[in-house]
Amino acid sequence: DSGVTQTPKHLITATGQRVTLRCSPRSGDLSVYWYQQSLDQGLQFLIQYYNGEERAKGNILERFSAQQFPDLHSELNLSSLELGDSALYFCASSVGDSPLHFGNGTRLTVT
Amino acid sequence: ILNVEQSPQSLHVQEGDSTNFTCSFPSSNFYALHWYRWETAKSPEALFVMTLNGDEKKKGRISATLNTKEGYSYLYIKGSQPEDSATYLCAFRTGANNLFFGTGTRLTVIP
Question: Which residue of chain A comes nearest to B46, CA vs CA?
Answer without folding.
Answer: A99
